[in-house]
């Protein structure tokens, strides 16, 4: 027998894992860099925080389609002179996430500052717990 707490934790863990599942790479695409992404959950929202070093804001694209959030960011590195060693890679950052049904997709917001992209995925009001007042019968 499972308790309510165990059931809630299992459901939340399953939803968070669903959000964190990587999508399959697109066919015919070049190798993409997978950015480091942290995923947090609160009672009101999910928050994704992605490191995108060397990327400009105008080179970031977020697409939401059929329950999947796709993050693509292009990074071009300046090359000066003859390369003696190359450790940094040029190319696209690409990562996809399955968005849980409980997210209000019309309210998703993103911000970018100092190479860090934050994506806020608010939960729908119907999902959030609310207190119901019990009234006395007159």
Task: Record keyword descriptors for this entry.
138 residues; mainly beta; 4-stranded antiparallel sheet; 1 helix; 12% helix; disordered N terminus
Can you characterise this structure?
This protein is mostly beta strands. The protein is built from one helix and seven strands, in the order αβββββββ. Strands 1-2-7-6 form a four-stranded antiparallel beta sheet, with helices on one face. Strands 3-4-5 form a three-stranded antiparallel beta sheet. The relative contact order is 0.22.
Helix fraction by DSSP (H/I, runs of at least 4) = 10-25%
How much beta, percentage-wise? 25-35%
Number of helical segments with 4 or more residues? 1
Overall outline? elongated
How many DSSP-defined strands? 7
């Amino acid at each position: 027998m499972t308790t309510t707490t165990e059931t809630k934790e299992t459901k939340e863990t399953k939803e968070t894992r669903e959000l964190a599942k990587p999508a399959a790479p697109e066919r015919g695409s070049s190798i993409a860099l997978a950015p480091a992404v942290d995923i947090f959950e609160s009672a009101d929202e999910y928050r994704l925080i992605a490191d995108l070093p060397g990327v400009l804001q105008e080179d970031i694209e977020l697409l939401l389609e059929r329950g999947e959030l796709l993050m693509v960011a292009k990074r071009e590195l300046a090359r000066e002179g003859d390369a003696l060693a190359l450790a940094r890679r040029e190319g696209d950052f690409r990562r996809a996430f399955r968005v849980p049904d409980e997210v209000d997709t019309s309210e998703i917001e993103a911000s970018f500052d100092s190479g860090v992209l934050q994506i806020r995925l608010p939960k729908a009001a119907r999902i959030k717990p609310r207190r119901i007042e019990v009234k006395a019968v007159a």
